[in-house]
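Let us work through a complete example step by step.
Step 1: write down the sequence.
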Amino acid sequence: MEPQAFRRLLNTYTLAGAEGVHVTLHPHPGDPEVLQQATAAITSLRPDSGAALTVADNRVTDPAADIEIHRGSNGRWYPFASSGHERQLTALHARARPRR
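Step 2: predict the structure and record it as tokens.
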């Protein structure tokens, strides 16, 4: 593994624990109803955006904002932003962080 990729995963683990790393490395099929609800909620907050949201596996992507949210198997959403050619987990709200 490249050092930069390892650093990203270490940062992800620091922010979101093992589930955050799992969500980063392993896309899995998402619940279509949950993904549709998330898409509808996001779309209602960005009525002037001309770019459509995309859904793939457990991820909803807003290309206009260059943000992607991943749904974990624990039911939590994990926000990712562009970092060069890769996506990087962004900071989670303190109550959403795993307890150690």
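Step 3: interpret the result. Residues 12 and 89 are 6 Å apart (CA to CA).
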